[in-house]
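Q: Sequence in, structure out?
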Amino acid sequence: MRNSFNFPDIRNQFPAICQSGDGSLVYLDSAATAQKPSVVLDALQGYYRGGSANVHRGSHQLTASTTSSFEQARKTVADFIGANTKEVVWTRGATESLNLIAQTYARTNLKPGDEIIVSELEHHANIVPWQLVAAQTGARIVKWPVNPQSCTLDLDKFRSLLNANTRIVAVAHISNVTGTRNPIEDTIALAHSAGAVVVIDGAQGIVHEKVDVKAMDADFYVFSGHKLFGPTGIGMLYGKQALLEAMPPWHGGGKMVERVSFDGTTFTRSPGKFEAGTPNIAGAMGLAAAVSWFSQLDLAGVEKHIQVLHQRLVTGVQAMEGVRIVGLQPGSSIVSLVVDGVHHQDLAMLLDQQKIAVRSGNHCAIP
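A: Exactly. Output:
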């Protein structure tokens, strides 16, 4: 059952904000990392204070209990996106998830002449891994250009880029720079009709939409915990089960094997074969706590509140001389702006002195 939207109540659940002296901190950098509610902090402390046993090994009750909680966390996240637990792999975040896909699925399947379409508005995490694997395999990157006026992607242009050599399409759900909501449903359908696999960077989208990976028909979908009010160092890779089972492991070590000998090693099935070594156990529990907390919010009320604030900011900025908004998107939660004659770092420092935290620079999305 969802709780009715109550802004003061939600704000008071974030110690870093409500305990910031006089409570005047204005935190406008959630696209980089979100603050954490108390329930997430409690989950982290609960693991360490209650006995920090390892998972999927050992014979004592503490490790059995920890393993059960760890796998329940996976189920919580799987249910959240409409997947099954065999399709959810724990990673350090969206960046590692994308690198895992590039170095397992892509490196195994790509050959010289194959093409990877990457949109121009991607975060570096959804560009650089594809450049690396292209150099390793002889494939090439094809840029899906952004419209410089609207900061949106053109599906007609995408259709013209698709061809018999297209193997992978990499695109963000929502841009971290402008808040552009990309046409991922149509992108997936068009890519599949050309025989290509689609990788969705959902780091921003997971916070603003109900995601159902089955309905979306995404081949891969990734996100980071820390942008969903969870801990840093934990994230998720969703992959269709058939794809994951066909992919080789990336890291080798304990927990991802069935048997090891000098004659050869056999690996566990997905998701275990991608989770070598001791995982971020506390992080998984913290992310599950964040997902459970987030799922109880009145999301319609939250988005309505965001839009009121967004319009208030846009109206104020547009009245200022020498301030330009870049790629203003209806319904977005982001306002990117340029102040003529002022260096972005200087402006950010001046705002910080007034307890207003903003992101300045290229936002890890130079193209």
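The chain has a mean pLDDT of 94.
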